[in-house]
Amino acid sequence: MCPECGSADVEWFTASGRATLYSYVINHRPARGFEGDGPYAIAVVQLAEGPRMMTNIVGIPNTPEDLILDMELQVTFEQRGDVSVPLFGPAGAAR
Ligand SMILES: [Zn+2]
Question: Which residues contact 67 (CB under 8 A, 6 or more apart)?
Fold first, then answer.
């Protein structure tokens, strides 16, 4: 819904996949079944088109030294069972 006025009058659109790193926390207590994945960042990225979404950052170490706010990111999709999960890595990096 619209973060400004709460309106539910929204629509689907095809996004470019470009985003910037808006915020993150580094989770040191992974969920059950994902113990081998931690610590990892739970990130909020801002799409080039405006909306923000929660995701994970891939392709770089998930450390404060490597996770630079406002860094340019590009979406990549990871297949997990029947679901294709949108994750983000550094823009311009080989994928
Ligand atoms: Zn609105």
Answer: 21, 24, 26, 41, 43, 57, 60
